[in-house]
Amino acid sequence: MAINYDAYEVVVGLEVHAQLLTRTKLFCGDSAAFGGEPNTHVSPVTLGLPGALPRLNRVAVEYAIRMGLACHSDIERNNYFARKNYFYPDLPKGYQISQHTTPICIGGRVTIRTAAGERDIQLNRIHLEEDAGKSLHDIDPVYTGIDLNRAGVPLIEIVTEPDLHSGDEAYAYLTELRKILRYLEVCDGNMEEGSMRCDANVSVRLKGEKALGTKVEVKNLNSIRNVRRAIEFEAHRLIDLLEAGKPIQQQTRSFDATDGTTFALRTKEEANDYRYFADPDLPPFQVTDEFLETIRASIPPLPEALVLKYTRELQLPEYDARGIADDKDSAGYFERLIRHTTNYKAAANWLLGPVRSSLNERSLDWKDLPIAPDSLALLIRLVEEGKISFSIAAERIFPVLMQEPGRQPLDIAVSLNLLQSSDTSEITAWIEQALAGMPDKVTEYKKGKKGLIGLFVGEVKKLSKGKADPKLTNQLLLEKLEN
Ligand code: ADP
Ligand code: MG
């Protein structure tokens, strides 16, 4: 009998580790930068040498709170760090410093948008912890290398409630979360390089059932797309097991991106005993009202607020508003652009049209766009004033401006002889040439096939290489054809 997958509800909780963009590590002055020659960002604190004492990085605390405020979490005022004890080669101290019972951000929510509409995903917590080092298995056939540059780099772990119900929702959540992290400039959100990492906890239950099913945790998900694939695969696998009357074991599994399947890494017999206790080397720390308010004031407008501003104040269609707000840097550029033009719709059309495709073609980011906003505004003005057509501006002038961003759009138009002609005799000459080339069509027009006017206008446009002022062309054509 066919399995009715629709009888089941998928339940997903995501744990995201985001590497904070601080200059230094969480508890010492070593560089927190990605990469570097192995084991060059390693002071005695990172190495866990006896007697080395940790000291808390204030900026990391600030970034964690910034994320919490953006996600509407409550901020814990009285904090301490705990030692989470376990043995692993990439963990020289034998424990990880983390937050245990007092995550710095409690609860909160992230609003997602899917085909089904808008929904808030509930967060459980956001806490601060240090990263571990990295084992390198592929540089020597026998030995495993250890690079401790990453050990001690600050992370926030963002944990949702078991509140997501499909791969699509997880996809939307992670996309939104990454957007917020990037807007806040607390994490670069690069899943391929591992500065944003996600574990997916998945279970299934019959619809209507209250109790949660046994979960599996999938690791090694290095893209948002793979998180979706893994959840979809796991949901099917778990339902198949239940339908076959087999028990589900609580497991940690790994995702294989080549075929979209997962395989078991380890089965959890019982809960790990990490022997948590407050780190005696780090005094508890308080978040004061003053600190909190400074952080609150430093939060830039987030995508949702920008979408509201663009649709309500600037009257842009929602599609345009979302397109611009999708990326912090495109929104930043747009904000600077509209200081120089009030033609908001044209500004949006330019950014989402020629500018975005040109950046894509060259694999550039918004922040690499060489053209200054005031210069693009001048180009928009030339079109507005009818000096050039939009297509000439986009196809002929804009590419030159990308190459030579220092030049004036008007100079480029003049030097390429692209200024639209409002010279009656010049346009009349093009019209005569156009009509002479298709006498049959002229006869048809005169017999009543008035729709042919478009063809004539098009021909004049072609002959003039787009320079003939379209309004004037139309008017002169009509005069000519009436005779
Ligand atoms: P663990 O101690 O195994 O890491 P937690 O209770 O801390 O488990 O939860 C980790 C993540 O797993 C959270 O995002 C939580 O929402 C999610 N989770 C917990 N139980 C389930 C379940 N039965 N099904 C799906 N997700 C779950
Ligand atoms: Mg876990």
Characterise this structure:
This protein is an alpha+beta fold and 483 residues long. The protein has three domains: 5-291, no CATH class; 301-415, no CATH class; 424-482, Arc Repressor Mutant, subunit A. Helix content is 39%, strand content 19%. It has helices at 44-47, 58-70, 167-183, 224-243, 289-298, 303-313, 318-325, 328-337, 344-361, 373-384, 390-403, 409-415, 424-436, 439-446, 453-463, 470-482, and strands spanning 8-19, 74-75, 78-79, 82-85, 95-98, 105-106, 109-114, 117-130, 134-136, 145-147, 154-160, 196-206, 216-221, 251-256, 261-267, 277-278, 285-286. Magnesium ion is lined by residues 15, 217.
Highlighted features:
17 strands, binds adenosine-5'-diphosphate, 39% helix, ten-stranded mixed beta sheet, alpha+beta, 483 residues, binds magnesium ion
Distance between the termini: 79 Å
- How many beta-strand segments? 17
Uncertain regions spanning at least 5 consecutive residues: none
Strand proportion: 15-25%
Coarse shape:
elongated
The DSSP helix count reads 16
Share in helix: 25-40%
* Class computed from helices, strands and strand pairing: alpha+beta
Averaging pLDDT over every residue, what do you get? 94
